[in-house]
Amino acid sequence: MVAADGSGERGWATWPNAVTVLRLLAIPVYLVLVLATDHRALAAWLLGVLGATDWVDGYLARRLHQVSALGKVLDPTADRVLVVSGLVSVAVVGAVPWWFAGLTLAREVVVSGVTLAIAALGARRIDVLFWGKVSTFALMTTYPLFLLCSNPHHAALAAWQRDGRVAGYVIGVLGLALAWVVAAGYVGPARRALAEGRAARAGRVV
């Protein structure tokens, strides 16, 4: 339903949803590039672009007043699919250590699981913390960088690739550590969101 001022929720046919669908459709293209070809540089750039544009659909929804019920589900789903596909595929081709991918994946599983659980219990939506955005940006920089600085068939790395891997480890370890710290920092907001969500629902019932 759209309010007279153009605000409110829209139907499914919106520009933000179109962007989200395009990002979802690009993920299989990325997976084919990284898993079935030797075009790692192209795959790395595509993964980087997909990660760097994860804010575009949300920005368009707010800017164009095209928030939709579908978008609220589709946008975070696309982000999670991209993150999991990216980190697992980069680990599968040996461009990043499995321990690093495992710790990143574990963090995503914990945060997603808790988010779904408290939403089912009636919590209001939790705003993303600033440092959470920073950690996500760091990790979404790290995986394309690791992929770019690797070669198929274990070919020798060029000097710039060795330097790039060092940079990837620095950015990645800092980003991963920050991601886990931020995850712990959501405990307080999650408890407040659950309490406020339940209070709001109780008020509507009354």
- Please tally the helical runs, counting DSSP H or I stretches of 4 or more residues: 8
Q: Which sequence of SSEs, written as H and E, runs from N to C?
A: EHHHEHHHHH
Task: From the 3D structure, determine the CATH topology.
Answer: Four Helix Bundle (Hemerythrin (Met), subunit A)
Helicity, in percent? over 70%
The global form is globular
Number of domains: 1
CATH class: Mainly Alpha
Low-pLDDT sequence parts: 1-7
Major sheet: arrangement of strands: 1-2
Q: Would you report the number of β strands?
A: 2
Beta-sheet strand percentage?
A: under 5%
The description of the largest β-sheet is: 2 strands, parallel
Would you tell me the overall average pLDDT?
85
Known CATH architecture: Up-down Bundle
* Class derived from helix and strand content: mainly alpha
Taking all Cα atoms into account, the compactness measure Rg is 19 Å
Cα-to-Cα separation, first versus last residue:
25 Å
Summarize the structure.
75% of the residues lie in helices and 2% in strands. By secondary structure, it is mainly alpha-helical. It has one domain (9-205): Up-down Bundle (Four Helix Bundle (Hemerythrin (Met), subunit A)), CATH 1.20.120.
Provide structural commentary.
By secondary structure, this protein is mainly alpha-helical. It has a single domain, classed as Four Helix Bundle (Hemerythrin (Met), subunit A) (Up-down Bundle), CATH 1.20.120. Helices cover 75% and strands 2% of the residues. It has eight helices and two strands; from the N terminus they run E-H-H-H-E-H-H-H-H-H. The protein has a two-stranded parallel sheet with strand order 1-2. It is globular and about 65 Å long. The model is unreliable at 1-7 (pLDDT under 50).
